[in-house]
Structure formats: C-alpha cells, structure tokens
Design goal:
GO molecular function, one term: transposase activity
GO cellular component, one term: cytosol
Distance between the termini: 44 Å
Largest sheet: 3 strands, antiparallel
Helix content: 40-55%
Radius of gyration: 25 Å
Number of domains: 3
Number of strands: 3
Oligomer: single chain
Strand content: 5-15%
Mean pLDDT: 77
Order of helices and strands: HHHHHHHHEEEH
Low-confidence stretches: none
Protein name: IS30 family transposase
Length: 219
Amino acid sequence: MTYTHLTTNELVMIEAYYKEGIAVSHICQSLKRSRQTIHKVITYLKAGHTAYDYYKDYKANKKRCGRRQTQLTQSEQDFIQRHLELNWSLDVVKGTYPDKIPCSMRTLYRLADRGIFKKADLPWKGKRKPNGIAEKRGKQAFRRDIRERSEIYPDFDTEFGHLEGDTIVGKHHKSAVVTLVEKQSKAIITLQTNGRKASDIEQSLNRWLSQFPKHLFKS
C-alpha cells in the first residue's frame, strides 16, 4: 500500500478545520485521509504548534532520510578534470576508464551540474540548449513577479508586514479558503470566503485587513 505525505495545502486545511471545531471524522472524509493521519496532526496542533511548525519539522526529518549524494575523492576529481581540459567529454572519460570512475556516466553529469567540475571545460561549455535558445513556453507575458517586492521595499527580507497568499479549493470545488503567511514571523492566517471568485476573495481580504491599521501590512 502506498502512502503520500500531507501537502502544505492539506496541513493548512486541517489547521483551519481544527480552529473551526470541525470533527476529525469530517476532516478525514473531506481530505480523504486516514483518521490516524489527521489525529496525529491535530494532536500536534493541540500542543500549541502550527501547521507551519509541523511542515518545518517534516522537512528537517526528511533531510536525514534517503541516499546520500555521490562523492568523488580529490584524486578522482583531478583525474577527470585533467581529461576535460584535453577536451574529453564525461561519457568518453567514463567509457575509457570504467574502473577508475566509481559512478555512472549520468552521475558524472549530475556532479557537473552541482559544480564539481568546471562546465567551461566541457565540450558543450555547460550549455545544453543549442544557439542560446531559451525556453519560453508556459510563461505568462503580463504578470508581476513576487521578487519585485524586494526592489520596492528595501527591508523586505527583515521587516514585518509582507504577506504571501494562496487559495485552497475544497471538495467538489464548492468552497475555498484563503491562506496568508507573514514572511518574517511565518505566521499562518486562514480566511473563509463566500466563494472562489476573485471578488469573493477580495471581499474576504478587505474585511480582514480592515481590522488593522492601514500601513501595518505593506505588501
């Protein structure tokens, strides 16, 4: 039986349901998750933690799992680098000296992507696309990049008052919850909306923001 970890959206939904006093059985039915999984998160929330704390602990634990990255000794790196400077490709080095290279050809290219070898010494100079062609498909022409805020607000990375938001659509696309994260404190705010239209979300945001001084939240 396969198991998928809870997503950030699911964690925020569980926290929102918990704060609303929704029964565990209803949460299980809505998210299609086992009672044990939901109960584990709610027990964590009852201890005074947040969904963000749960996700942060999960990411920290995940870093300690899995296979470690392949490492080459310094002599092995120097051996490969000398041949790259002679205009050899990584697959030719591996094919010519299979016993001296302890990893596969694909791993060698991944090591190059990680910066272990100088890409300028590779035959393709580190460029996978011919003639400098950049991928343009799937990109929106008219949009505001979230990174522009750091240019408008010099203290964007250190000051309080900058929100990042998302909308979580509920079961059968009938309901929605707005989630906001304050960038500095990492506080998570969940807002109920009357629907999932832009006007419904705007109304919910304006109603919530009206409780605070006008310039408390800057962006």
